[in-house]
Input
Amino acid sequence: MGASGLSMSALNGKHILLGVTGGIAAYKAAELTRQLKSRGAEMRVVMTEAAQAFVAPLTFQALSGNPVATHLLDPVEESAMGHIALARWAELVLIAPATADFIARLRAGLAGDLLSALCLASEAPLILAPAMNRAMWANPATQDNVRVLRERGIRLLGPEEGEQACGETGPGRMLEPVELCEALEGSFGDGSLAGLSVLITAGPTREPLDAVRYLSNRSSGKMGYALARAAADAGARVTLISGPVALMPPPGVEFVAVETAAEMHVAVLSRVHESDIYIGAAAVADYRPAEVAQAKIKKTAASLNLELTRTEDILAAVAGLSPRPFTVGFAAETDRLEDYARGKLAAKNLDMIAANWVGRPQGGFDRDENSLHVFWPDGERELPLADKSRIAIQLIELIAERFHAQDTTENPR
Ligand code: C5P
Output
C-alpha cells in the first residue's frame, strides 16, 4: 500500500532525479518534490529552460534541499556535480511533467540539453509522467513516440483524463503528486505484479434488439481502464477486454474490443488460461433479447413485449475453471452492500470482491470518483472515496498482496 506516513516508505533513502520540463503541470512538480522528500527520498531536480518559465529553480532548490541543475555546459554546475555524475547518482529518473517535445527528444536520443543528456547517460530506470493538451497526446506522432519508448522499457505513469489547463477535457492530465508517489513506491523492487499476467474486463456490453437498437447500461469503463493502467504500472502484462466506451486504452496494454456479453465471454475464455489474475470490472448485461430482429422494429403495436434470456456469467465461468486465475469480481449494489457482496463472493467462489454503492450521490457508475468495500474469504478493507485512478492503484496493491499471500499458503485454486 502507499505510504501512510507511519510505516517507512519504499522511497526512503532512494536517489530520485526529477526532471521538470516546460508545461503548466510544472507547478505540480513542486508539490511532487515535497511529497517525495517527505517519504524520505533524496532529491535532485533538473529543469529544462522552458520549465523555468513556469516555476523558478529556487522553488525546487528549497523543496529538494539541493541545488537545481539547469545547464549542460555551465562550468560551475559541471564542477559541482557534472551531468555524468548526476546520471550515475540517480537510482531512478522521473520526468514530471514530460511534455510532447521532451518525449520526442527522448525517442530521438537527443542530448543537446542537460536533461536529455542525463536521460541518455543514466542507466537507472526512467519513468515519464506525461502532461499535455489532449490533442497533442492523441496525435499519432506522440503516440508513436510513446510506443517506441515503452518498447525500450521506459515506463509511463498516466496521463489521466480530465479537465485541462487549456479549457479542454480529455486524456493528457499529469497524475496527481500523491498518485505518482504511490506508483513510484511500487516501482522500487520489481513492482508488485512483476512477471504476472492480468486479464481485465471493462465497460458495458451492448445486447442488440434489432438492426439499430440495443440494451446497455451506464458503465463508463473508467474503473476497469484505471485498473488496467495500475496493473501495468505494477509490472504486469495486461490484457484489457472492453465493451464500447469513450476511453483510450492505456499504453502498453493489449486491447480487445467487444460488444456483446457473448463476445466478451468468448474473448475472456480464449485468453484466461494464460492469466494469473482475472478482474471482472465490466458491467456485463445479465439479459439479452431472446431474438434479434434483422430489420428495424416498427412502431405499429401500442405496446411491445420483449423476451429476454440470461447471458453467460463470465465471472462465474472463470471462477469455475480448474486451474483458475486469482479471480476478482465487482459488485455494484443499491442496498445491503456487504450481505450481497459476501453472498456473491461465496456463490461465485471468488478470491475477492470489490463492492461499491450505486444510485448514491458519490462514486460508482459514470463518475470520476469511487469508494470500494473489498471482501475476501477471511478479510475485508475499505478504500475511501477517491479518484478512480487512485482507487485502482490501491485495489491493485491489495490484489497483489492477497495473490502473493495465497501463493505462500499452498492454497490450491
Ligand atoms: O452478479 P452480478 O452481475 O452483480 O456480479 C457482478 C460481477 O460479475 C462483476 O464482476 C461482473 O463483471 C461479473 N459478471 C459477469 N458476467 C455476467 C454478469 C456479471 O462476468 N453475465
Summary: The pocket of cytidine-5'-monophosphate is lined by residues 201, 261, 280, 282, 284, 286, 311-315, 329-331, 344 (CB under 6 Å).
